């Protein structure tokens, strides 16, 4: 389950945010008669369609895994836990319909009508992500159901969906999607610029992606800091794992790096009082440690160490990306361009991978930080997961499917890239019209306007 979720979650930002970047380019192209922006929108829509197809396949495997691997969860709490997935299914079909219309509509629909068919794609992808986040956040703060004899006998759908953890998790994931997609897109064009492709097409593709991520990232850091304090109040066990805190106390240091060995912190760098300051702005803030958790449901040293290190990686890489944003702001203020700034472009070229690493480690903190619970306070993981069956052959089959699907997706994207490079950035007819003269949108093309 960890492998399949770790694979699938990489596709989520592109479903949520790449479609929005596509619409930004499309809108710019129509409003300003920008040939390069329209070409970007058209190509990004094809990339989004490929990734949507891959996401559909990997998401289908996940739905089967929920039933096969988690009989205790689905059998006991499926009436509540399954509700958000029903909503997600509706958004998925809506997204699939409008993706098809938008892709097919190039050159076949009036320009602005075609643009508006793309808006439901972006909105439905956000709705689908919200539904999945609702299910995940419900496991962290379950509610909206009535138990009788350990069985769910009544469900209040609104309380299940909009549970106590939903809004913060949803906002955090939504901002993360735009950061990952923005830096990933920027990294592609940064590589092209490093290889000498410095046309306006490449510069615009880089700027749309990078500026989107750069605008969102400061808000994400504020949201992340606020969520950390929320976790301190609502999920003290997870907070103790994040802070690698074996014992309850005040004046708690922030430990950089380190692991937990036999209940003791090893190899870490403590920053005095910082954890207490971050939790409630006072050095005297008392933070519950792992010793406050009953031994029967206390997470293992390995789980705690993994959560802590994942959190450190997430925050560390986010801070590095923030420095890259500051560097960009300085370059733009001084030069109004990033052309020829090779070290900056080299850093941008790997920013997409860094953003994906932030996404993955953040997911590890959320999921592993809940252990040993699957539904916190109600269902332990050992009672939720299957204990029989041919799991290794099943995992081997899933691995083979994902390798094949991933390799096929990469192959298709590379073939599209080669074809686009062969066509060139300035020789492809503008969508919605001929290569010169007024097009159907009233946009003058072929004249530099």
Radius of gyration: 24 Å
Strand-residue fraction?
5-15%
In helices, the fraction of residues equals: 55-70%
Say how many strands there are. Answer: 10
- The helix/strand order is HHHHHEEHHHHEEEEHHHHEEHHEE
The shape, in one word, is globular
Average pLDDT level: 90
Structural class determined from secondary elements? mainly alpha
How would you name the oligomeric state of the polypeptide chains in this document?
Answer: single chain
Question: Which terms summarize this structure?
Answer:
15 helices, two-stranded antiparallel sheet, 449 residues, disordered C terminus, mainly alpha
Mind explaining what this structure looks like?
The chain has 449 residues and is mainly alpha-helical. The protein contains 15 helices and ten strands. The chain has a two-stranded antiparallel ribbon with strand order 1-2. A two-stranded antiparallel sheet has the order 3-6. It has a two-stranded antiparallel sheet with strand order 4-5. Strand 7 and strand 8 form a beta hairpin. The longest helix has 35 residues, at 35-69. The radius of gyration is 24 Å and the shape is globular.
What does the secondary structure layout of this molecule look like, with pairings?
Blueprint: H1 2-32, H2 35-69, H3 71-81, H4 83-105, H5 111-140, E1 145-148, E2 151-155, H6 157-161, H7 166-194, H8 200-234, H9 236-242, E3 254-256, E4 259-261, E5 264-266, E6 269-271, H10 274-280, H11 301-335, H12 342-349, H13 351-368, E7 373-375, E8 379-380, H14 381-384, H15 391-423, E9 437-438, E10 444-445
Antiparallel strand pairs: 1-2, 3-6, 4-5, 7-8, 9-10
Helix pairs in contact: 1-2, 1-5, 1-7, 2-4, 2-8, 2-15, 4-5, 5-7, 7-8, 7-12, 7-13, 8-9, 8-11, 9-11, 11-13
């Amino acid at each position: 389950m960890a492998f399949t979720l770790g694979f699938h979650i990489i596709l989520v930002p592109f479903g949520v945010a790449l479609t929005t970047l596509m619409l930004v380019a499309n809108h710019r192209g129509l409003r300003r008669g920008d040939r390069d922006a329209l070409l970007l929108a058209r190509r990004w829509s094809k990339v989004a369609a490929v990734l949507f197809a891959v996401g559909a396949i990997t998401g289908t495997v996940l739905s089967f895994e929920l039933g096969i691997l988690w009989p205790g969860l689905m059998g006991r709490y499926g009436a509540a836990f399954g509700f958000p997935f029903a909503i997600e299914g509706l958004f998925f079909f809506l997204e699939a319909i409008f993706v098809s219309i938008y892709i097919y509509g190039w050159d076949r629909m009036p320009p602005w009508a075609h643009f508006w068919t793309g808006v439901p794609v972006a909105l439905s992808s956000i709705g689908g992500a919200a539904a999945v986040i609702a299910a995940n956040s419900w496991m962290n703060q379950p509610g909206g159901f009535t138990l009788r004899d350990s069985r769910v006998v009544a469900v209040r759908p609104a309380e299940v969906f909009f549970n106590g953890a939903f809004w913060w998790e949803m906002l955090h994931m939504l901002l993360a999607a735009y950061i990952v997609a923005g830096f990933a897109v920027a990294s592609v064009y940064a590589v092209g610029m490093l290889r000498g492709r410095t046309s306006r097409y490449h510069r615009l593709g880089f700027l749309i992606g990078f500026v989107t991520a750069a605008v969102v990232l400061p808000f994400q850091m504020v949201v992340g800091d606020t969520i950390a304090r929320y976790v301190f109040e609502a999920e003290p066990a997870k907070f103790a794992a994040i802070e690698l805190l074996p014992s309850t106390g005040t004046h708690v240091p922030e430990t950089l790096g380190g692991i937990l060995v036999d209940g003791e912190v090893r190899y870490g760098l403590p920053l005095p009082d910082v954890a207490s300051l971050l939790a409630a702005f006072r050095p005297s803030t008392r933070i519950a440690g792992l010793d406050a958790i009953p031994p029967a449901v206390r997470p293992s040293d390995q789980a705690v160490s993994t959560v802590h290190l994942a959190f450190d990686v997430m925050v560390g890489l986010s801070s590095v990306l923030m420095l890259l944003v500051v560097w960009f702001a300085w370059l733009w203020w001084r030069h109004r361009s990033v052309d020829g700034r090779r070290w900056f472009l080299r850093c941008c070229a790997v920013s997409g991978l860094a953003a994906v690493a932030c996404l993955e480690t953040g997911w590890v903190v959320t999921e592993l930080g809940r252990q040993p619970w699957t539904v916190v306070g109600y269902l332990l993981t050992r009672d939720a997961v299957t204990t029989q069956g041919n799991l290794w052959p099943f995992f081997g089959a899933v691995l083979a499917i994902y390798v094949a699907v991933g390799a096929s997706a990469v192959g298709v994207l590379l073939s599209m890239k080669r074809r686009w490079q062969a066509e060139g950035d300035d020789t492809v007819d503008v969508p919605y019209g001929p290569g010169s003269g007024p097009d159907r949108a009233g946009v003058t093309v072929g004249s530099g306007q």
